[in-house]
């Protein structure tokens, strides 16, 4: 009689309730183990926690072109720390390359696809923990949303920022290129100079260098607890970036062993910390959308109006692009994001007892790494809370009869913007861009762009081309733009996005006509049109909602699923109900 195979049981030290046991343990899982053995895994791996390494590497964008190497360092560290690393891929969209085209409608959808795909792989393959990696803008929130949904012990790992380029002795980024397009159209720059800048603005791998969306969300990953302190600022091509990757892999194994899940450290206080950091450094308006989405996924009650409350008590203390001249490289050289966090904590503007994936509170983590104080630095782009750049943080939420559910602006210059004037309304980005490029824009103009919201676009396009063309013509502070779409993290000036409700669902922006008088008042948080409630209601009753731009395929599917920008434009049914 042949001997029966010995029943496998979890190894000592591997808890018997880990999800991976469902595919690695027991006689009935012999076929499953055979599949793993075909990929080089062995008995030691089966006795280890299974850590997914989610990698959106691609040749689509410099933000992600190097991520195989970053993922490799994290993978090796997981293995060396006693984990069973399993690398898998997902998609990315290059915001900068799709900008100004119909393809930009895919950008916000990619956040959802990334979250969906990582959640599916982690769920379907019964993983015990995750290292989620991000490069281009929507990678970061998509990866963190996936970790929230699975509630697996997870560490977020940023791919790092690009080095700034150089032109005529000054540092430049892709923002300068977008604004250069407007300057050429206005005759303020030659095509030859723009060509020279083009060839030098992006010298290698990494995400756009200013405090744009990628660096904002990476900085937030530290602050909210998903990443180790100091991990967001090392540049993409520095050895420090690979040290961070190794640290992240080791930490993921530790987090599984200690059962540190996102639900353990994502609290209302940690989201308030993230907002405080965002408004203090002049971070991207997109972080409003993404933090609302992450909070909805986590079941944390976060209202868009709370960005105003936190901005009112938290001064802006960092002068980085797009409002300033400095980039992430400069912040890294003086100590990175922890320098800002220390200043905010000492001013009692952070919740120091908020936990992180390391098991420490943020106050304990800052005490351990002991970043330098701003007052001790020779850094002309960082100010103390006592002597800030602006008394209030950089983000404002505007309401009024044109945006009853809110609209978002980032203050990059004048802090007391007020404007009243007639609007020129456009039904899509392309028409507005043509209007600007043809030289029609004058000081005092108001430009409105509608049908670019989450459902109307669909996909809520960023419109850096339009705002940069306006800025490049010298009108960053004296021409106002508003839209139910989004603006890039590289946008500066008088640009208001996320107008909600959007036109496609019958929001007040749908009722506007050329010549209507718009009032924008930053101090009063107002975005309104000079129409009575009755006039607005009458116009909306006579207004026919537009037909969907796409009726098949992924854009149609996600266009139908998106919720309001005021709640993060989420597609997850449970999160939409929050």
UniProtKB/TrEMBL annotation:
GO molecular function, one term: magnesium ion binding
Active site (UniProt): 488
Pathway: Amino-acid biosynthesis; L-isoleucine biosynthesis; L-isoleucine from 2-oxobutanoate: step 3/4; Amino-acid biosynthesis; L-valine biosynthesis; L-valine from pyruvate: step 3/4
Domain spans labelled Dihydroxy-acid/6-phosphogluconate dehydratase C-terminal: 382-569
Broad class of enzyme this protein falls into: lyase
Alphabetical UniProt keywords: 2Fe-2S, Amino-acid biosynthesis, Branched-chain amino acid biosynthesis, Iron, Iron-sulfur, Lyase, Magnesium, Metal-binding
Catalytic activity annotation: (2R,3R)-2,3-dihydroxy-3-methylpentanoate = (S)-3-methyl-2-oxopentanoate + H2O; (2R)-2,3-dihydroxy-3-methylbutanoate = 3-methyl-2-oxobutanoate + H2O
InterPro entries on file: DHAD_IlvD/Edd, Dihydro-acid_dehy_C, DihydroxyA_deHydtase, DiOHA_6PGluconate_deHydtase_CS, ILV_EDD_C, ILV_EDD_N, IlvD/EDD_N
Binding site for [2Fe-2S] cluster: 63
Residues with PTM N6-carboxylysine: 138
Enzyme nomenclature, EC number: 4.2.1.9
Keyword Amino-acid biosynthesis appears in the UniProt entry: yes
Region (Disordered): 1-31
Pfam families xrefs: ILV_EDD_C, ILVD_EDD_N
UniProt cofactor(s): [2Fe-2S] cluster; Mg(2+)
Gene Ontology terms describing biological process: isoleucine biosynthetic process; L-valine biosynthetic process
Binding site for Mg(2+): 95, 137-138, 462
SUPFAM superfamilies in the record: IlvD/EDD N-terminal domain-like, LeuD/IlvD-like
Residue ranges constituting the Dihydroxy-acid/6-phosphogluconate dehydratase N-terminal domain according to the UniProt record: 49-364
Record's subunit section: Homodimer.
Family, as annotated: Belongs to the IlvD/Edd family.
Descriptive protein name: Dihydroxy-acid dehydratase
